[in-house]
Amino acid sequence: MKRVDNHFEIQGIKVDKICQEFGTPLYVYDADTIVGQLSKFRKAFEGVDFKVKYACKALTNLSIVKLMKTLGTGLDTVSIPEVKMGLSVGFEPEEIIFTPNAVDFSEIEEAVELGVHINIENMSNLERFAKKYGNTKPCCVRMNPFIMAESNSEKVEWWHKQSKFGISIKQIDDVKELVKEYGLVINGIHIHSSSVIMNPEIFIKGVQNVFEVAERFENLDYIDFGGGIKVLHKEDDEIINIFDLGKGLKEELAKFEERYGKKVQLWFEPGRFLVSDSGTLFTEVKIRKNNGHREFAGTDSGFNQLIRPMMYDAYHEIVNTSNPDGEEQMYTIVGNICEIDNFAVDRNMPEIREGDILAIKNAGAYGYSMASNYNSRMRPAEVMIVNGEAKLVRKRDTYEDLVKNQIVIDFDKESLDQKHQELTETL
Ligand SMILES: *Cc1c(COP(=O)(O)O)cnc(C)c1O
């Protein structure tokens, strides 16, 4: 979204025109931004044998997933429906990796039948997998190097938040036992660092850590670094320079391959890095009020449509697209959910008037994909801007969508009344 004269536009289409055509609240994705992020990523790791597996839980709209396929990425999935979504838009099974967490083994069996790469993150399922498939189906193992990092407090801090994920490095001998006993073929290891990669130094420490773990496996074809590369949310954010990451990684990889005696492919699973910036949630201000302490701007959206500010305390830049030159004032921008529902607290913004369209930025990742129908409101429509055209990629929910899976049963009034009477007597 960029400002041109006194209006904002995406690929030459005026924001107000888009909002008029499709209504608000509205998610809008700029395909060019996604292409740009992917090209940055590829350029940063140029010269390395690597694959990008888009982590589609960040934004699962099928047109986005298909865009990724068209751009030549692979796919990282965390559930069987995500696998099926990938296949449905043309991904080959071998381009997809299935990385679930704490699932019933039947899901892994289903994924094997669908032909995708399997990534296992607990001993229970790894043992079942080894018993059932022996040496007939290779798998990737998700490790948690937490324990190994004990000697370095910064690293401990770094891994600490994800201790639920992966097989502890302490259990590596148990993993190897399965290899010996059942012929299990471990051809990949995976270490996802969550959304904490903020500077190259920490990233490189993490990379060294991953390579240390990798050296303990003999037959790796690939090492999967997961996702978790942060993007800029506001101008003074500490932001990772992906080109520095690439440079540091190449140095570490060369050292590793020399020690390991064989080349491996590197996989990355960026989610937010690819789609966060591309998405904007447009919402119209319906109510302005002052409660004696604060100036409120009440919008037609809420945390049911973008939960990140309330759930993660995430900062999202908000632009008043209707009045960019208005006089600056402090506002608390809220949603319409019937409980505390802030998008921004005490934010300095150009004057906000009823009817103004606000753009909540960085809404591409974990925006729509975490939306719900809480308060029985419709989830917004989604639009993609591609080749200078605004295309609807998901319709707004309808009332029928809200109630379609519900079953209204009949009640016997007499017996309920009797129960009511009985329970009242016990009071
Ligand atoms: C969520 C997730 C990702 C993507 O994380 P981002 O922070 O969006 O880059 C990648 N890999 C796995 C296994 C994940 O669960």
Secondary-structure blueprint:
Elements: E1 2-4, E2 7-10, E3 13-14, H1 15-22, E4 26-30, H2 31-44, E5 50-55, H3 62-71, E6 74-77, H4 80-88, E7 96-98, H5 105-114, E8 117-120, H6 123-133, E9 139-144, H7 153-160, E10 167-168, H8 172-182, E11 186-190, H9 200-214, E12 222-224, H10 242-260, E13 265-268, H11 272-275, E14 279-290, E15 295-299, H12 308-312, E16 318-320, E17 328-334, E18 342-350, E19 357-360, E20 381-386, E21 389-394, H13 399-403, H14 413-425
Parallel strand pairs: 4-20, 5-6, 5-13, 6-7, 7-8, 8-9, 9-10, 9-11, 11-12, 12-13, 15-17
Antiparallel strand pairs: 1-2, 2-3, 4-14, 14-15, 14-19, 16-19, 17-18, 20-21
Subunit structure: Homodimer.
Organism: Aureibacter tunicatorum
Domain Orn/DAP/Arg decarboxylase 2 N-terminal: 33-276
List keywords for this structure.
427 residues, Lyase, Ornithine Decarboxylase, Chain A, domain 1, TIM Barrel, 2 domains, nine-stranded mixed sheet, 14 helices, binds pyridoxal-5'-phosphate, EC 4.1.1.20, decarboxylase, amino-acid biosynthesis, DAP_deCOOHase_LysA, Orn/DAP/Arg_de-COase
